[in-house]
Every structure is written in structure tokens, then in C-alpha cells.
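sanity check this record:

:::
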Amino acid sequence: MNNAAKKLIIALDDLNFADCCALVEKTRDFAATYKIGVSLFCAHGPTIVKELKSYGVDIFLDLKLHDIPMQVSKAVEQAIDLEPKFLTLHALGGYTMLKEAAHVACGSKTQLLAVSVLTSMDEEQWRILGFADSVKDGVERLIVMSYEAGVRAFVSSPHEAASLKKLFKNDCIAVCPGVRPADAQHDDQKRIMTPYQAINNGADFLVVGRPITKSADVVMSAGNINAEINKALNEARNQE
């Protein structure tokens, strides 16, 4: 598996169980990790995590846990038994929730990811919620709080990846949805970049769903995105 594949996460959220297995089988040369969202997990629970891991891939369990600290801590404790590579928490749950979750996950094989502001949310929707600052400032505020609570990996728009790395002097991991090839539809994503741009902007992992899963040729689409990532990585390596 090449280095580009290690950075690509394919989101399976709009597929059924059988289609998830088929897609993993077809594309696992191009992606090391596959994302299971809350709807897919609600439908199939731990069974789908175990089944997909049997293909030799990692799992990004995207549950965006957000509840009182006790409930989230117990949920994290149960989830890490499945050994996902990533597990998401919503930063809006607050400092105590994040800190207690980080304590539970410490020493496990699972990296907690704090979700700040969803990439489907633009400035207008953000302000409708009552926030006076910009989306960019809101993302930074929530990420700083998460970092102080002990979380070192973050889900953010690729537009915020560079500032995230600068803020923490690279002591963090940026996992970026909102990634679309130049010729793909934006769907419900508002703040997007191409795979090439996202890697150049500091993203460590890219999450791509429908441009692959809804493609007429999933292998070709995954391969093309893999190639874009590889181009950015090679250019960065040549500049060192």
C-alpha cells in the first residue's frame, strides 16, 4: 500500500451492508481506512465494524458523540473495544466531556477526533445558531478547547488545516472532509478543496464519500484521488 492510500478515508455512509463490503474489496488498494457514520452504525452496530476490519482495513467510527460526560465516557469505553482507528466526539459537548473521553481512550488503539463545525455549515447558518464570531474563529475556539482537554486530532475543513498545524506547531492530526475532485458535485459540502489542494494545505487524512461511492467506476475514482494525493506528497518531498 502506498503512502497516498494511507491518507485516504472512504466514507461508506450512503451504502448498505453488502455494498460496503463490495466497495472495500474493490478499493482497499487505494484507501487504508473506511468511515462508518452514525446511520450505518445504527443499522448494523458492531457487526459491520468487525466485518470490514476482516478485510484488513482500518475503521473511522464517525459517531460524533455529544452528551453528558458520563454517557460519552461510557460510549467511548464501549467503542474502543472495537479498535477503530478514529472515533469522533463533538467539541460542542464541552471541555469536561472531552477531557473525560480523552482519559478513557488514553493508551488504546483509537485516536479521538474532535469535530468543531460541520463542513455543511456556512457563515449564514453559523450565525443563525447565535454565534457572533465567524466560522473560522468558531472552529479555532472549539479546537483550542479540545486540545486543552487532551484531544490531539481534529476533523476540520481543509481550509482550516494549515492554521490548525500552525496553531499547535504540528502537534496535531487534521482529518478533512469537504474534499472533492475538481469535476465532482459539491453535494451538501460548503467549504471544499480538491485532494491535491487539501494535502498542500496541511491535511493529514482526507475523507471522500460520494465522488467514489456514487461513481460509475469506483476503482477508477478511488485511483484518481489516490493519484492526486500522491502528486501533492511527491511535490512536498521534492521541496524538502
Q: What stands out?
A: The chain has a mean pLDDT of 91. The chain is about 45% helix and 15% strand. The beta strands are 8-11, 33-37, 58-65, 86-90, 111-115, 153-155, 173-176, 205-208. The radius of gyration is 17 Å.
